[in-house]
Amino acid sequence: MDIEIPRHQWMKFKEMLPYFYTKQIPAEAMPPHMLEYLCKTGCSCSEQKKLVGALSSQKLLLKSSLLR
C-alpha cells in the first residue's frame, strides 16, 4: 500500500511524523558535525541503519482494527 499525508495536513505532524521505518544511511549523507561526534564517541562512522520518520511511504503494511 502506498500512503501519503496530504500537504495541507503536514503542520499537524510537525512534532511527530506518522510513519517510521529503518533505512541504511550512507556516511556521505551524514553532516560533518555528526561524523565528528560519532568518531569522538567511538561509534562507527560508516554506513548505519537508522530509524527514519516520514510523511509518506511505499509498500507499507498497516495492521489495525481502527483502520476502515
What labels would you give this structure?
two-stranded antiparallel ribbon, elongated, alpha+beta, 4 strands, two-stranded antiparallel sheet, 68 residues
Task: Describe the protein.
Helices cover 15% and strands 26% of the residues. The protein is α+β, with helices and mostly antiparallel strands and 68 residues long. It has a domain at 17-53. A two-stranded antiparallel sheet has the order 1-4. Strands 2-3 form a two-stranded antiparallel ribbon. The protein is elongated.
In short:
The protein has 68 residues and is an alpha+beta fold.
The termini sit apart by: 14 Å
- Helix content, binned percent: 10-25%
The radius of gyration over CA amounts to 16 Å
User: Helix and strand string, N-terminal first?
Assistant: EEHEE
Largest sheet: 2 strands, antiparallel
Major sheet strand order = 1-4
What's the structural blueprint in terms of helices and strands?
Blueprint: E1 3-4, E2 19-25, H1 32-41, E3 48-54, E4 56-57
Antiparallel strand pairs: 1-4, 2-3
